[in-house]
Write a structure and sequence with these properties.
alpha+beta, Alpha-Beta Plaits, 4-stranded antiparallel beta sheet, 4 strands, 16% strand, elongated
C-alpha cells in the first residue's frame, strides 16, 4: 500500500504540490489578508470619524473664543425674555400692564389656566402650533375709546414675552382678550450632548435686534 501511494505521489507530485500551494494561498488570503483589510478599513472609518469630531470641536472652540461673553449674556437675556423657561406669571402681568399703559387703557383683570406642571413627557401634548408650550390667559381691558383697545392688541403683539391674541370680544368700553403666552423650558441634557456651536446667522441677529427693540419700548 505504501509502495502504491509512493508511486502515485511520484507520478502526481507536481500536481499535488501545485494544489497544495493553491490551497495555502487561498488560506492565507481568506484567513489572514482579508481580515486584516477589514480591520484596516474599520480603523480608517474610525479615524475619519474622530477627525470630523475633532474638527467640529475645534470650530466650536473658535466660535466660543471669538464671541464676547457680555454679548452672549445679553442675547440669552433677550431670548429668555421672549420665551421664558417656565410659566412666568410676573412677566405675563408685566406685559399686560405695559401694553395697557402704552395704549391708554386700563387692565381691569386677568385670569389664566395654569394646567399641569411641565415635564419632559408633556412637551408634545402641551406644545402649541409653533412647537413650544403655551399658557392661556383671559385679560379684560377697559377704555372709553374703542380704538385704544385695538392699540392695546398692537402693543401686546410687540411686548415680551411673546404672545398671540386668539380672540377679542369688545363692547361697552370693555375688551376681553383670549391670549396665548409662550414659554420654552430648557432641556440641559440635550444641550450638554451638543458639541457643535455655530455663530448666529444674520437672520438670528435680526430677530434678536427686533426682540431687543420690543423689550426697550
Amino acid at each position: 500500500m505504501k509502495q502504491k501511494l509512493s508511486q502515485i505521489y511520484t507520478k502526481y507530485k507536481n500536481q499535488i504540490l501545485q494544489a497544495f500551494f493553491v490551497f495555502l494561498s487561498l488560506f492565507i488570503v481568506f484567513r489572514v489578508i482579508l481580515p486584516q483589510i477589514s480591520v484596516i478599513s474599520e480603523a480608517g472609518h474610525t479615524i475619519e470619524a474622530k477627525r470630523e469630531e475633532l474638527e467640529t470641536l475645534t470650530n466650536s472652540i473658535r466660535v466660543i473664543e471669538n464671541t464676547n461673553d457680555d454679548a452672549i449674556s445679553q442675547d440669552l437675556a433677550i431670548s429668555t425674555d421672549a420665551l421664558p423657561t417656565s410659566k412666568d406669571i410676573v412677566k405675563i402681568f408685566s406685559a399686560l400692564t405695559s401694553a395697557a399703559r402704552a395704549s391708554n387703557t386700563e387692565l381691569r383683570e386677568f385670569s389664566l389656566v395654569v394646567g399641569r406642571v411641565f415635564g419632559k413627557t408633556d412637551l408634545d401634548s402641551q406644545s402649541s402650533a409653533i412647537g413650544v408650550p403655551e399658557l392661556s390667559v383671559v385679560a379684560r381691558v377697559v377704555s372709553p375709546d374703542a380704538s385704544d383697545l385695538i392699540q392695546f392688541a398692537q402693543k401686546l403683539n410687540q411686548t415680551l414675552p411673546l404672545a398671540e391674541i386668539k380672540k377679542i370680544d369688545a363692547g361697552n368700553n370693555l375688551g376681553t382678550f383670549n391670549i396665548n403666552f409662550y414659554y420654552k423650558p430648557l432641556d440641559l441634557s440635550l444641550i450638554s450632548k451638543n458639541d457643535k456651536v455655530l455663530p448666529l446667522s444674520q437672520a438670528d441677529r435680526n430677530l434678536l435686534n427686533q426682540l431687543a427693540g420690543w423689550k426697550n419700548n
